[in-house]
């Protein structure tokens, strides 16, 4: 059954509904907790390196303000403008990945710990990967919504949707950033699944990726060593397993209710990246099991709210855009917590909204702004007609949600 199209909304939110208040408040609370934890986890190192305890906190606060400004602006804009901006945004992201991957401008892409993952400008630096994830979600959402049933054909349907993430993943491997490439390709796979690509195609892609994964692990011996240390964490507690060993000590020291905010001992140079990759461990030490469970629950609730917004989106593009933005944040949070608890191998991924990080925090808040924009057009009344933006993929989850609501 084809649903008649309704006129597109204007550039701003005039005539549209309010944003999802629960989602907005939850994001603010998570960023607030992040500011507190960044100060607690970084104050000692900041004092040693810079002579005052607030250097990292001040940087995080500045980026939070910039990120919230971006979130407010993007929440006020009509999310459909991203359909037109999807290709320019994608090309910009690919260009920014090419610069460090190929070392085209060494002075702007210094080698840090054996990798070129940052573009450094006077007084400012950023990681292209953060923008690449957002650009990929926007482009894939627009492309899948436009192609619709043509996804069943490879040449003009599924092919480009496989090629673009593969190219971006290859550029990340050249930096090298195995973790970033893996997460990006996983994100692309989830977007294809939500877009309705047949499961046998996805299974074929996963099978084809196994030998590529094996080669990527083999060409860098340290990756295999890190994987080996994951399966036997007690074998090298002063080497490859040192971070995980110290992380577990930190979490175990907190008990049920923690040692108290600011009272962590592991942040005294015992746990590397305590204010960044392993801030969840410091949170567990200071706030205990109760604190870690509440943070986990907060991200799961954010996921529920985000996918609820997606389910109620008025069109396939909104569904895919909201789903992708939610997936980026929730997936990163679960992986970070999995690493801190030795459930997953060490990846060096930050905890969204809470870890110290410039580019990541600003882009994450921008994505929440886009998600809030989609929530303004959420279909609260199941009997209200939805827009049909064209032929949706046969197995599209948005189409399934729409049909279910139409039958009510």
The run of helices and strands is: HHHEEHHHHHHHHHH
Low-pLDDT segments: 1-9, 381-395, 404-408
Tally of alpha and pi helices: 13
How far do the termini sit from each other? 15 Å
* Mean pLDDT level: 83
Tell me roughly what share of residues is in helical segments.
55-70%
- The value of Rg in angstroms is 22 Å
- Class per helix and strand makeup: mainly alpha
* DSSP strand tally: 2
Major β-sheet, in short? 2 strands, antiparallel
Shape: globular
Q: What share of residues are in beta strands?
A: under 5%
Strand order of the biggest β-sheet: 1-2
Count of discrete structural domains: 1
List the helices and strands and how they pair.
Blueprint: H1 21-50, H2 55-76, H3 81-102, E1 119-121, E2 124-126, H4 128-147, H5 154-174, H6 178-194, H7 199-218, H8 221-231, H9 242-254, H10 279-311, H11 316-340, H12 358-375, H13 397-407
Antiparallel strand pairs: 1-2
Helix pairs in contact: 1-2, 1-10, 2-12, 3-4, 3-5, 4-5, 4-6, 4-11, 4-12, 5-6, 6-11, 9-10, 10-11, 11-12
What does this structure look like?
The longest helix is centred in the last third of the chain and has 33 residues. α4 packs parallel to α6. Helix content is 64%, strand content 1%. It has one domain. The chain contains 13 helices and two strands, in the order αααββαααααααααα. A hairpin with a 2-residue loop joins β1 and β2. It starts with 20 loop residues before the first helix and ends with a helix. It is an all-alpha fold and 408 residues long. The protein has a two-stranded antiparallel ribbon with strand order 1-2.
């Amino acid at each position: 059954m084809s649903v008649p199209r309704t006129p597109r909304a204007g550039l701003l939110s005039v005539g549209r509904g309010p944003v999802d208040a629960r989602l907005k408040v939850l994001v603010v609370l998570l960023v607030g907790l992040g500011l507190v934890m960044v100060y607690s986890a970084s104050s000692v190192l900041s004092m040693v390196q810079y002579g005052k305890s607030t250097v990292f906190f001040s940087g995080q606060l500045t980026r939070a303000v910039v990120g919230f400004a971006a979130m407010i602006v993007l929440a006020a804009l009509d999310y459909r403008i991203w359909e037109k901006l999807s290709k320019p945004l994608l090309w910009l992201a690919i260009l920014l990945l090419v610069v460090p991957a190929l070392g085209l401008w060494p002075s702007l892409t210094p080698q840090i710990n054996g990798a070129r993952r940052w573009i450094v400008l006077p007084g400012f630096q950023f990681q292209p990967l953060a923008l690449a994830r957002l650009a990929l979600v926007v482009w894939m959402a627009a492309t899948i919504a436009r192609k619709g049933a043509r996804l069943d054909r490879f040449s003009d349907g599924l092919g480009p949707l496989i090629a673009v993430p593969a190219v971006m993943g290859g550029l990340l491997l050249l930096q090298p950033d195995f973790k970033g490439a893996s997460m990006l390709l996983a994100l692309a796979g989830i977007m294809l699944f939500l877009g309705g690509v047949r499961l046998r195609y996805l299974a074929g892609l996963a099978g084809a990726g196994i030998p590529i994964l094996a080669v990527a692990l083999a060409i860098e011996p340290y990756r295999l060593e890190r994987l080996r240390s994951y399966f036997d964490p007690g074998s090298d507690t002063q080497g490859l397993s040192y971070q995980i060993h110290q992380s577990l000590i930190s979490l175990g020291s907190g008990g049920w209710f923690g040692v108290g905010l600011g009272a962590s001992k592991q942040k005294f140079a015992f746990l590397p990246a305590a204010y960044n990759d392993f801030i969840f461990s410091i949170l567990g030490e200071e706030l205990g099991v109760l604190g870690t469970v509440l943070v986990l629950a907060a991200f799961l609730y954010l996921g529920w709210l985000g996918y609820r917004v997606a389910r109620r989106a008025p069109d396939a593009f909104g569904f895919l855009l909201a789903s992708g933005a939610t997936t980026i944040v929730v997936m990163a949070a679960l992986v970070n917590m999995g690493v801190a608890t030795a459930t997953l191998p060490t990846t060096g991924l930050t905890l969204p909204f809470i870890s110290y990080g410039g580019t990541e925090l600003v882009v994450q808040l921008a994505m929440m702004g886009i998600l809030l924009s989609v929530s303004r057009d959420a279909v609260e009344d199941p009997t209200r007609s939805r827009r049909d933006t064209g032929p949706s993929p046969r197995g599209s989850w948005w189409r399934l949600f729409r049909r279910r609501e139409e039958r009510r």
